[in-house]
Amino acid sequence: MRYISTRGSAELVDFEGALMTGLARDGGLYVPETWPTFSADDLRAMRGLSYPEIAFRVMKPFVSPCIPDEDFKKIIDESYATFVDHSVAPLSQLGPNLWLMELYHGPTLAFKDVAMQVLGRLYDYVLNKRDKRITVVGATSGDTGSAAIEAIRGRSRASIFIMHPNNRTSEVQRRQMTTVDANNVHNIAIEGTFDDCQNLLKAMFNDHDFRDEIKISGVNSINWARIMPQMVYYVAAAVSLGAPDRTINFTVPTGNFGDIFAGYAAKQIGLPIDKLVIASNLNDILTRVMNTGAHTLGEVHPTMSPSMDIQISSNFERLLFDLYDRDGKAIADLMNQLTETGTFTLGQAQREKALKLFTAQRVDEEQTLKTIEKVYQQSEKLIDPHTAVGVEAAWREQDAATDKSTPMVTLSTAHPAKFPDNVEKATGTRPPLPQHMLDLYDREERFTVLPNDLETVTTHIRKTLAAESQTV
Ligand SMILES: *Cc1c(COP(=O)(O)O)cnc(C)c1O
What value does the mean pLDDT take over residues 109-129? Predict the structure, then answer.
């Protein structure tokens, strides 16, 4: 499999190239040059297999020929052994033809573990082969940082530095990052906001000397290797609910458009998905573009589903590429327009094409709380605010559907105990942490508080790396 950039002028790369480069040199995102396809028989043959076995079959064409089967199987098995629930993505029923897919049974209690666990091991595998090291640097407002730390902890070929805004993450989120006891994990609390952290990160990536010196690498969802493992749970859920002999719908709480793009990818490889519902919180740029065609940047509104508080959904570019018949120049033009004017308009033909598969729903804060409450009353199940945005969107779609017999699966993206205050506010019940995290509040925290100053931070990273290499 080779990968092509959405902006058309970067060279094609193999899987290893896409993994190690992240963003293409022309500023675009890598997508598969062609979509491999699975026949109805191939899909039927996956019924009843274990999650790692399905994962191997679905992802194999995407990593071929870079990673031999036996090595890849080992990477997958180890990745999913870290999940408390070995089915990785269990379904639970909310109502007639209405399902939740629980993606939060991994080490950090959010769906990002499903891909990140694989990504960390893929990095190690390739770096071993090339006898190289990298330094992962990231900025986080919560979920991404802890998932990345869990993925990189103890890996022999990588160190990780995660910046979070000091005193501005939830305590659960901070402790999940700062209590990891591994000598290649380094937390930095920046005296500033999440935007300050992101600006520091951008400045480090733009400083070519620093970048080359520490062999910097990112972990955000523009990397194809983070999208790829997410296709698997769409396939696993669909075949267990009767695909390919029945169509399935999915609703996805959406921020950066990575998770739902994986659903689109699953459809391209042959999964009979009828509808993909984009569920947004108040940050509704995607709902607006679907409903009006105007892709216009707005302000970021902080909500109780913070992992979806985005201004721009980077992975939307991957969908645009297909909507514009893979015309890289057209995409480069749209993206330049967006940078220069803060807006572009999706063409009428392209919007109609998108609406054949996607619909979008915006869910406000009050509706989110009500949904948490209603689900608890109906089924005694506690759901987190991100999941609630999805469930409300799914209800609306089911109510409006003429044929209600197609199963609707809502992706449950975080464990309720990650956002205990709002869940308690809605239901009166405080969700307990799962067994393996009960001592989270007793574990020792390790982090360094630094001012919002580029030079102080880069000096700290250099010194810490030097000290780390002496202890190995
Ligand atoms: C990251 C995240 C999302 C959004 O996923 P995207 O791939 O960015 O669209 C939704 N819910 C939770 C809990 C997340 O951590």
Answer: 95
With respect to residue 419, please indicate whether it lies within any of the assigned structural domains.
yes
* DSSP codes joined into one string, 143-159: HHHHHHHHHHTT-TTEE
Give the global pTM: 0.95
In this predicted structure, the answer to whether residue 183 has a pLDDT above a threshold of 80 is: yes
Whether 259 is covered by a domain: the verdict is yes
CATH number at residue 353: 3.40.50.1100
Q: Confirm if 184 and 153 have CB atoms less than 8 A apart.
A: yes
Q: CB 13: neighbour CB atoms within 10 A?
A: 20
For residue 358, the model assigns a pLDDT of 98
Rounded CA gap, 280 and 304, in Å?
A: 12
Q: Which ligand 1 atom is nearest residue 384's CA?
A: 13
Q: Is 456 among the domain residues?
A: no
Indicate the helix (H) or strand (E) that contains 217: strand 216-217
Distance from chain centroid for Cα 92: 21
Q: At what angle do helices 51-63 and 224-240 cross, to 10 degrees?
A: 140
Tokens of 260: 């739902």
The structural domain count of the chain equals: 1
46-58 per-position pLDDT tens digit? 999 999 999 999 9
Q: Is 375 helix (H, G, I), strand (E, B) or coil?
A: helix
Both tokens of residue 470? 């002496």
On whether residue 99 sits in a domain, the answer given is yes
For 7-20, what is each residue's pLDDT tens digit?
Answer: 999 999 999 999 98
pLDDT at 472: 56
Query: Which whole number is the average pLDDT over 182-211?
Result: 90
The answer to whether the Cα torsion of 150, 153, 154, 156 is positive or negative is positive
Q: Which domain range does residue 353 map to?
A: 91-109+225-427
Cα 148 to ligand 1 centre (Å) = 14
CA 253 to ligand 1: nearest atom = 10
Q: Are 94 and 230 in contact (CB under 8 A)?
A: no
**Measured from the CB, is residue 307 less than 6 Å from ligand 1?**
yes
- Residue of 108, 220, 384, 386 best suited for mutating to test ligand 1, as the one with most atoms within 8 Å of CB: 386
Q: How confident is the model at residue 110 (pLDDT cuts 50, 70, 90)?
A: very high
